[in-house]
Design goal:
The protein is mainly alpha-helical and 331 residues long. Helices cover 70% and strands 6% of the residues.
Length: 331
């Protein structure tokens, strides 16, 4: 798409406004090879997170608060992967970089919504570990399955409601600047920088949304683990301390995988103006692609109950009296 055509698009013709996404700047000639690891990462995310969701849903022994929260985390990771999959693979497979405004706003909404939900789930998991370690005798009465379901509903409602105004606030702008976005998918802060209008309202609301989600969530996680660490240090016996802390390893890894790339991406956008244009793209891809891939691997390795139940996802049965075996989901 030429600059002339794009200028007509942004100057108000009947053609819907569109943007150009970018893949890996300077590596366009090797997109075919780059698509291989990206495809494998998406496949790993789908298989890993889908398996955890199925396990918790079908195994009665895993229908406990800790595992229900884990299935929520897997669901949000799976949703983030599904949201970014169409545009990223279309770039690397088909070299198709154009995305219309409506599609961009839709992707933006779901991407930010599921990211906010994942942040909320991480807080709920931190509270789960806080109660389990600091008040273990009341754990079963405080955190029941019913309470966990209500917590999940609150997390989903918060994410949906906070992000809901953003696409409508963004849709009203005329876009007459450069049409090139900075990533392989649509982000709110990336889109509004192309608007030729006052974006103060969007910027302020975006900041408030971040503070009400990731800001508050990170604060609650830090407070929870500060209290957990204080409780663990008061336990007599190194073995008991190690056992208590070992129950938090998976969640700590999930928190670090979520927040460290996010902080790194924010630092790069703010202070990396003279850095390679490839750096923020890589940081954004790490932020959205690595947690959905690594989280199910960590939980499958470190959680004995999950590891033992994975083979039970698939069972064998005879079909039509024939001595033939197929894989099927265990009822």
């Amino acid at each position: 798409i030429t600059e002339r055509v794009q200028s007509k698009i942004f100057n108000g013709s009947s053609i819907p406004a569109s943007f150009l996404l970018i893949g890996m700047p300077g590596l366009e000639d090797v997109y075919g090879w780059i698509s291989i690891p990206f495809s494998l990462m998406f496949l790993t995310s789908f298989v890993g997170n889908g398996t955890i969701v199925l396990l918790v849903n079908r195994e009665p022994s895993l229908q406990q608060p800790m595992y229900i929260l884990l299935s929520m985390l897997a669901f949000t990771d799976l949703s983030v992967s599904l949201t970014t999959l169409p545009t990223m693979l279309s770039i690397f497979w088909l070299n198709s970089t154009q995305i219309y405004l409506e599609s961009c706003l839709t992707q933006m909404y779901f991407l930010h919504t599921f990211a906010a939900m994942e942040s909320g789930v991480l807080v709920a998991m931190a509270v789960d570990r806080f109660i389990a370690i600091c008040d273990p005798l009341r754990y079963a009465t405080i955190l029941t399955n019913s309470v966990t379901a209500k917590v999940g509903l609150v997390i989903a409602t918060r994410g949906i409601c906070i992000v809901f105004p953003i696409p409508f606030l963004t849709r009203r702008f005329p876009y007459c600047k450069s049409h090139r976005l900075s990533h392989s998918y649509c982000l709110h802060q990336d889109v509004i920088r192309l608007a030729c209008a006052d974006t103060t309202v969007n910027s302020l609301y975006g900041l408030i949304a971040v503070l009400l989600t990731k800001g508050l969530d990170s604060m609650f996680i830090i407070i929870s683990y500060g209290t957990i660490l204080q409780t663990v240090l008061s336990i007599k016996g190194n073995d008991a301390r190690v056992k208590a802390l070992s129950t938090c390893v998976c969640h700590v890894c999930a928190v670090l995988l979520f927040y460290v790339p996010l902080i790194g991406l924010s630092v790069v956008h703010r202070f990396g103006k003279h850095a390679s244009p490839l750096l923020p793209v890589l940081m954004a891809d790490v932020y959205l692609l690595v947690p959905p891939v690594i989280n199910p691997v960590i939980y499958s390795i470190k959680t004995k109950q999950i590891r033992q139940k994975i083979p039970n996802v698939f069972s064998t049965r005879k079909v039509g009296g024939l001595d033939r075996r197929i894989f099927t989901i265990k009822p």
